[in-house]
């Protein structure tokens, strides 16, 4: 049985990717959640995660004696373990595109990442509006993401046809857009809704809202938990 070590569902975008992939694909795994804290070297989070992952970060996947860390490496490993599930598209050009856009997400969009951290339970629309007006690079990141989401093979398909690792990679981005209400084209919005309607994503959202934790480190825009909660 796989064990997936993740962080708080309200905040952890990197954890969300392999969790959504495994859940959406119906692969059973045991979830091990390590609560976020200050991430100081002596913190409980670091003490726990460093027992298995030398980078001191989540997510990490354990399968027997093997530990796989880094969200992309975990998804690649899962895809190799379950070739029949076609977690990358079967068709070569779509597969190449899925890999390109996943890599783009993995290493890019710094402005969006820095300015709009995921916060599933919060409604930060007014902050999003302000950030949008002030940061040209955020507008560029959003425009590129909107383009990626709008270039899917057909209006009702996922990013590269069937649900794939690429969609698991962009699911946390959808959550950032939801929280900060960043503007999208009609096609980009339709894709965001498609992701939000997935059972795996709904489960993540429900569990994130049940956590009711406030980690100041991850809260640049709120002073306390009761502030700016979604309905
Ligand atoms: N490239 C890594 C990044 C993982 C990462 O940054 N995880 C964050 C949580 S969302 C973390 O554990 N941070 C702890 C720290 O920075 O000390 C991946 O894709 O898994």
UniProtKB/TrEMBL annotation:
Gene3D superfamilies: 1.20.1050.10, Glutaredoxin. Pfam families: GST_N_2 (PF13409). Residues 2-86 form the GST N-terminal domain. InterPro entries: Glutathione-S-Trfase_C_sf (IPR036282), Glutathione_S-Trfase (IPR040079), Glutathione_S-Trfase_N (IPR004045), Thioredoxin-like_sf (IPR036249). Coiled coil: none annotated. GO terms for biological process: glutathione metabolic process; L-phenylalanine catabolic process. It comes from the Bacteria. One of its GO terms (molecular function) is glutathione transferase activity. This is GST N-terminal domain-containing protein. It comes from Acinetobacter dispersus.
């Amino acid at each position: 049985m796989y064990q997936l070590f993740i962080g708080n569902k309200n905040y952890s975008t990197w954890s969300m990717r392999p969790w959504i992939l495994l859940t959406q694909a119906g692969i059973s795994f045991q979830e091990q959640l390590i609560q976020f804290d200050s991430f100081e070297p002596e913190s409980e989070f670091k003490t726990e995660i460093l027992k298995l992952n030398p980078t001191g970060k989540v997510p990490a996947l354990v399968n027997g004696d093997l530990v796989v860390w880094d969200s992309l490496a975990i998804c690649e490993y899962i895809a190799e373990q379950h070739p029949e599930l076609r977690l990358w598209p079967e068709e070569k050009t779509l597969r190449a595109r899925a890999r390109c856009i996943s890599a783009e997400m993995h290493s890019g969009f710094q402005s969006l990442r820095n300015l709009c951290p995921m916060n599933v339970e919060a409604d930060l629309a007014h902050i999003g509006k302000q950030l949008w007006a002030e940061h040209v690079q955020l507008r560029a990141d959003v425009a590129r993401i909107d383009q990626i989401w709008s270039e899917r093979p057909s209006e009702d398909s996922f990013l590269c046809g069937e649900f794939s690792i690429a969609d698991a990679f962009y699911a946390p981005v959808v959550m950032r857009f939801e929280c900060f209400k960043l503007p999208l084209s009609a096609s980009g919005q339709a894709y965001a809704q498609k992701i939000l309607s997935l059972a795996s994503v709904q489960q993540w959202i429900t569990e994130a809202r049940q956590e009711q934790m406030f980690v100041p480190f991850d809260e640049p825009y709120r002073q306390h938990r009761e502030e700016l909660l979604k309905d």
